[in-house]
């Protein structure tokens, strides 16, 4: 009787299991809220990580995902990276139709196997196996099972249920098992308001989450990485490419990087040391010396990305760069650091996340992070940051690639988190001084001088090396609202010392000012018209974030056509709000001369999503006033 | 006068002699040069480009193809650094593979007036297995600086003797001196195909050569006898010598810039060895067609019918009208088999498997379609096509084509079909396949050319009924009817997108205009045009100055910039298909205002009936009526019309921006 009971119970349980599994293979059972904004739905994801030892880790993943439409194919993520340290144990895929019936089985050997070199990399020893599947109808469901074993335990996959826009999650779980002599640290981010289950045991940590709705990208919002719910994991002891380490905070992590990855890379031939000492011997001041060395590196080297084994994190030797004159970010940073050391200047290897999104290293959570390296030179309590992969950047100028974020500075005493230079609104300045004359038939003859600093410098200074043919097209696009531009002069000056980019341009455009009857309509702002309005969202979900502020100051003198007289002009405008300010003013200097003054300031900042519409309104106003016209009337003969 | 000429010629000779193109003989003058005197915008220049491709006999393997490369490149500035990293793609298939060997390379710089050489070592060479069919060897030069010269040479051995890489005579940077040689033993008959704007003629000669065989014969007695024998033959040698080749610069609206790059392709026509039957590869279009047709992945795939007969019988049933039959079968294939993104005119897995799996490449889908049409009694033929990406097929080569579509001959016309895109209608091929001419393959190997560019323009009719208010707000309704390619691209964008997203994008395309009552008709009924309609509200559509209102009657629909910005142009402008757009705009004026002035009617025309713009405006007391017709009648417009085209678009932009003035009464 007792036995029967158990059996019955067992069968019941089993059938429920089966039912719920099967349920996931058809698209009919997707809750309605998860379909909203979603191109794909993760029905169930199980990630089981087992650290058997500090150099032995198994990662098992089983993911059931329903692809709702063509756009969703990108979320399939049915691939696995591998190299000499990673063995693929299981890799298989089942494809189900809308009703949940199997329509295709794909085994490991049917996966495409290619080198994981991307366009920007010369060589990498990493490879990838990926699924190539042509859907025959939508929606369809894929079950992806993958198990790998790796000797590297430095990177432990995080629990990130959603890694992309337009993707929702029904259920996702994460388990990590580890030996009792290993400590696993965790850090939770953006989990508030989610249905999260969590269990922490001495040798096991479990997380799971249900019902996560899809996120849709929106303009002027924080970077995806800053809003994604995630839990990151790190082991205090780990092995990376055969090198074992102990690190539980940035201090000790930095120490490991310094001792195990950087210590034997700072070799240089005597001749180079002598040469570099000779190069700077005239300079008294450390900064001037560093400038000379930075210029030397910029002239000597170029950026080539080579990712081999430990090269993923360990720089090539300085002597190697000295000989070959090329290297990746780590190699070039290390090389510059070694040259500086040769003349007695202390500088530090710095790890960070590069890119426009200003992603920071996690301040309180030491782990293998970062995708880029730069150099920092302490300078009386200030820090000078050097981007060593650029042959063009001025000394100490890092631009939007590495600005305003937390980075790990590796000193001999250990790692320290610091914040890179933030380019403030006032610093990101563009000043336009110009003049134009309008002819009796509406043609304009324009002369302008544009001076850009800060991030506005960053946006433009690379144009210096464009060909004349490309620049001609570039300027026609910059003033795309003026038809038939004919450029007569382009003079660009990249002042690397002052970090200013100066453009001297003159051009002619026919019929700019429109003649209507015996009047002429002139859009006063010819040189810096804002044409973009932030997108409108019916239901804004993400907060408003303006990553970088800027300030534009324009002063343009206008010579009116001799046969016309000013009839009416728009009122002066002044708008001020928390997002910035806008000023536009027309000064009548004499009967044929006007002075147009405009100032637009946009501050950086973060605001709740409710503010987005006001911000958009502000831009709409700017747009409107930038299109303001004056009316001129033909003189009576 | 004579003396000057003489002196000049001496100078010339001297400077010619000063150039030494032996490996390593880089001169100071080359290193000192700051820019290319013939093209100061060049970031780098090939000082010397050498290639020799020939056959080498190997005892075990027979003839293998050898290519020697030697290049010397001057790097003027940092933008030219990309030419210091090189890539050699090596093909492999069925155990045979191409190999690169004898790679030698150096960088030269001038250091305090002295030439300094840095050799490429193994640490600068990288080998990667890209995929099952390709390996890649890359090398990057050491010690590269602005002003340096890099030089490298290597050999490639290839067992794929029928596949000689194109000889390319024009690059994206200038070439000062180019030498190229192709030589092939008399047994291999190659055909040369030239393309591009440069005129290139080889010097031809014959060269004698000999193969020595070492034979080993073991006699029954146990003795081994060694002997040698010789075979004498000659090789056909083609030599090219060119200098000062300008860089090829890309231009917008060019179909595919490689169509204009000067190059020669050697394609194997046939092999003719003594005591061996001739083996044909291809020589004429007929041969190309025959060799494609005879390939088991084409002709016999086309002739298979058993796998679908039952379904097709059911579908066509009693319908006898050929047009209806065609369209039923076309729809059936489009719904049944999905395109896996692969091109080619040969089937990969075969039509049967594609039919069963419901997935196939271009050949599987369109050969299946052709076969079904034939089964249904229609005169259907496959058409070889070269996609825009692949360039224009100028000579009879198998590689000239990379795609296949289907074609039906009906009593009252022809129909082109491509079932790889579910939104394609008869005679509307996807944009990728719109490339000059296709080659129709007749049942018994014959072929004829057919124009792939559509004859009929893609029509687009836009009507707008709107009212402008005193403060410049525009309120109205919009209706657009799109045919052919305009409908196709609309369906591709709309049908697979989320409706809310699509709408949001549409609103933001017009600066956040508010749209309501959005409706699409015939999104899935592709036999009818797309009809898009909505109501809209947009602020600041007129300038209010004093007691007057100023606005362009096209409002947000106007063409805001000239797409042609380049000052001059070398290559044709390719629109892909002819188009015809009609605007019908009715504007209600705010009460109490009257029209003070309005744009006058105008007609603009491109020469030779290439296109036209007609603008007609009627103003009454309360209403404005505007009718505009814009037509582009040709898919391709020759660069001789570029100035006219640019001026035409400039006038069009200007006319569309012209304003109406209303005065308060």
TrEMBL record, chain A:
The keyword Lipid biosynthesis does not apply. Residues 276-373 form the Transglutaminase-like domain. InterPro entries: DUF3857, Papain-like_cys_pep_sf, Transglutaminase-like. Residues 57-190 form the DUF3857 domain. Keywords: Coiled coil. It holds the Pfam family Transglut_core. This is DUF3857 domain-containing transglutaminase family protein. It comes from the Bacteria. The keyword Coiled coil applies.
TrEMBL record, chain B:
It comes from the Bacteria. Keywords: Signal. This is DUF3857 domain-containing protein. InterPro entries: Papain-like_cys_pep_sf, Transglutaminase-like. Residues 313-410 form the Transglutaminase-like domain. Pfam families: Transglut_core. Residues 1-18 form the signal peptide. SUPFAM superfamilies: Cysteine proteinases.
């Amino acid at each position: 009787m007792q036995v029967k009971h158990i059996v019955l119970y067992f069968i019941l349980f089993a059938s429920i299991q089966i039912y719920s599994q099967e349920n996931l293979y058809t698209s009919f059972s997707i809750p309605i809220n998860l379909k909203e904004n979603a191109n794909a739905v993760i029905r169930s994801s199980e990630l089981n990580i087992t650290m058997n030892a500090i150099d032995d880790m198994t990662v098992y993943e089983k993911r059931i995902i329903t692809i709702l439409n063509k756009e969703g194919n990108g979320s399939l993520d049915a691939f696995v990276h591998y190299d000499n340290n990673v063995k693929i144990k299981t890799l298989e895929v089942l494809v189900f139709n809308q009703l949940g019936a199997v329509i295709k089985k794909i085994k490991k050997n049917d996966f495409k196997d290619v080198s994981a070199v991307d366009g920007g990399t010369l060589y990498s020893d990493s490879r990838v196996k990926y699924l190539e599947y042509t859907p025959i109808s939508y929606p369809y469901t894929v079950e992806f099972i993958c198990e790998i074993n790796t000797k590297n335990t430095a990177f432990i996959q995080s629990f990130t249920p959603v890694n992309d826009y337009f993707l929702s999650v029904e259920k996702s779980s994460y388990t990590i098992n580890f030996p009792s002599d290993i400590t696993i640290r965790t850090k939770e981010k953006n989990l508030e308001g989610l249905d999260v289950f969590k269990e922490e045991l001495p040798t096991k940590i479990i997380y799971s989450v249900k019902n996560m709705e899809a996120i849709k990208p929106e303009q002027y919002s924080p970077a995806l990485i800053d809003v994604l719910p995630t839990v990151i994991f790190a082991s205090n002891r780990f092995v990376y490419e055969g090198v074992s380490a102990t690190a539980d905070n940035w201090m000790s992590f930095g120490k490991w990087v310094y001792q195990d990855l950087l210590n034997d890379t700072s070799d240089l031939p005597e001749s180079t040391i002598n040469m570099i000492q000779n190069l700077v011997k005239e300079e008294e001041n450390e900064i001037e010396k560093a400038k000379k060395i930075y210029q030397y590196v910029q002239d000597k080297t170029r950026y080539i990305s080579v990712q081999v084994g430990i090269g993923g994190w360990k720089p090539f030797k300085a002597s190697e760069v000295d000989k070959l004159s090329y290297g990746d970010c780590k190699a070039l940073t290390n090389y510059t650091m070694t040259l500086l050391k040769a003349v007695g200047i202390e500088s530090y290897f710095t790890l960070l996340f590069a890119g426009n999104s200003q992603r920071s290293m996690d301040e309180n959570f030491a782990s293998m992070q970062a995708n880029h390296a730069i150099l920092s030179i302490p300078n009386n309590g200030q820090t000078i940051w050097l981007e060593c992969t650029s042959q063009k950047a001025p000394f100490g100028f890092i631009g939007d690639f590495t600005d305003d974020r937390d980075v790990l500075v590796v000193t001999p005493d250990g790692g320290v988190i610091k914040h890179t230079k933030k380019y403030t609104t006032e610093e990101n300045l563009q000043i336009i001084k110009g003049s134009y004359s309008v002819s009796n038939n509406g043609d304009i003859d324009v002369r302008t001088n544009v001076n850009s600093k800060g991030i506005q410098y960053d946006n433009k200074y690379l144009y210096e090396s464009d060909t004349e043919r490309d620049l001609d097209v570039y300027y026609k696009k910059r003033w795309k609202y003026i038809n038939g531009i004919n450029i007569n002069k382009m003079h660009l000056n990249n002042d690397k010392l002052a970090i200013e980019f100066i453009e001297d341009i003159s051009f002619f455009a026919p019929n700019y000012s429109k003649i209507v009857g015996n009047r002429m309509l002139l859009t006063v702002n010819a040189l810096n018209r804002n044409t973009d309005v932030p997108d409108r969202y019916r239901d804004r979900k993400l907060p408003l974030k303006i990553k970088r502020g800027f300030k534009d100051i324009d002063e343009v003198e206008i010579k009116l056509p001799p046969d016309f007289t000013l009839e009416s002009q728009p009122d002066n405008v002044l708008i001020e709000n928390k997002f910035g300010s806008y000023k536009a003013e027309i000064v009548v200097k004499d009967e044929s001369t006007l002075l147009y003054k405009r100032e637009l300031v946009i501050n950086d900042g973060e605001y709740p999503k409710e503010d987005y519409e006001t911000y958009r309104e502000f831009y709409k106003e700017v747009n409107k006033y930038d299109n303001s016209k004056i009316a001129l009337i033909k003189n009576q003969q | 006068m004579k003396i000057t000429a003489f002196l000049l010629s001496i100078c010339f000779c001297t400077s010619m002699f000063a150039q030494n193109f032996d490996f390593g003989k880089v001169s100071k003058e080359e290193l000192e040069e700051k820019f290319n005197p013939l093209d100061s915008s060049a970031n780098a220049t090939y000082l010397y480009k050498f290639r020799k491709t020939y056959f080498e006999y190997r005892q075990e393997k027979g003839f293998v193809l050898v290519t020697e490369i030697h290049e010397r490149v001057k790097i003027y500035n940092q933008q030219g650094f990309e030419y210091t990293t090189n890539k050699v793609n090596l093909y492999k298939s069925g155990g045979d593979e191409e190999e690169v060997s004898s790679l030698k390379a150096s960088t030269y710089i001038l250091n305090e007036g002295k030439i300094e050489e840095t050799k490429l070592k193994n640490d600068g060479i990288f080998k990667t297995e890209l995929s099952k069919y390709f390996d890649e060897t890359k090398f990057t030069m050491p010690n590269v600086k602005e002003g340096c010269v890099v030089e490298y040479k290597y050999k490639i051995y290839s067992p794929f003797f029928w596949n000689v890489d194109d000889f390319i005579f024009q690059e994206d940077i200038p070439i000062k001196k180019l030498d190229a040689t192709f030589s092939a033993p008399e047994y291999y008959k190659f055909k040369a195909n030239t393309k591009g704007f440069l005129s290139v003629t080889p010097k031809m000669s014959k060269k004698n050569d000999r193969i020595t065989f070492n034979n080993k014969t073991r006699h029954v007695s146990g003795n081994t006898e060694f002997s040698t024998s010789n075979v004498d033959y000659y090789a056909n040698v083609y030599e090219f010598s060119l200098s000062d080749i300008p860089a090829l610069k890309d231009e917008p609206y060019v179909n595919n810039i490689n169509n204009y790059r000067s190059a020669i392709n050697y394609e194997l026509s046939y092999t003719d060895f003594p005591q061996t039957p001739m083996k044909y590869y291809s020589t004429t279009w007929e041969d190309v067609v025959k060799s494609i047709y005879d390939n088991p992945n084409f002709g016999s795939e086309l002739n298979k019918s058993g796998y679908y007969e039952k379904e097709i019988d059911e579908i066509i049933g009693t319908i006898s009208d050929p047009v209806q039959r065609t369209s039923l079968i076309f729809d059936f294939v489009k719904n049944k088999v999905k395109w896996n993104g692969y091109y080619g005119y040969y089937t990969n897995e075969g039509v049967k498997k594609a039919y069963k799996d419901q997935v196939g490449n271009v050949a599987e889908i369109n050969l299946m379609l052709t076969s079904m049409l034939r089964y249904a009694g229609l005169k259907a033929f496959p058409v070889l096509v070269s996609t825009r990406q692949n360039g224009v097929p100028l000579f009879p080569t198998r590689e000239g084509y990379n795609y296949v579509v289907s074609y039906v001959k009906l009593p009252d016309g022809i129909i082109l079909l491509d079932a790889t895109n579910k939104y394609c209608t008869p005679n509307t091929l996807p944009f990728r396949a719109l490339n000059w001419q296709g080659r129709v393959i007749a049942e018994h190997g014959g072929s004829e050319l057919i124009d792939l560019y559509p004859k009929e323009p893609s029509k687009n009719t836009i009507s707008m009924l709107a009212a402008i208010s005193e403060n410049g707000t525009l309120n109205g309704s919009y209706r657009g009817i799109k045919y052919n390619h305009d409908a196709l691209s609309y369906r591709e964008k709309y049908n697979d997108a989320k409706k809310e997203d699509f709408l949001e994008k549409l609103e933001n395309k017009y600066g956040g205009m508010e749209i309501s009552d959005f409706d699409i008709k015939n999104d899935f009924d592709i036999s009818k045009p797309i009809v898009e309609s909505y109501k809209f509200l947009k602020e600041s559509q007129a300038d209010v100055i004093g007691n007057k209102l100023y606005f362009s009657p096209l409002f947000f629909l106007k063409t805001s910039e000239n797409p042609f910005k380049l000052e001059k142009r070398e290559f044709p402008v390719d629109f892909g298909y002819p188009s015809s757009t009609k605007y019908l705009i009715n504007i209600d004026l705010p009460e109490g205002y009257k029209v003070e002035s309005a744009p006058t009617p105008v007609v603009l025309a491109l020469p030779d009936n290439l296109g036209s713009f007609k603008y007609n405006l009627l103003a009454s007391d309360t209403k404005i009526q505007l009718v505009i017709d814009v037509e582009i009648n040709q898919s391709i417009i020759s660069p001789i019309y570029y100035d006219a085209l640019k001026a035409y678009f400039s006038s069009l932009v200007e006319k569309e921006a012209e304003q109406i003035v209303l005065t308060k009464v």
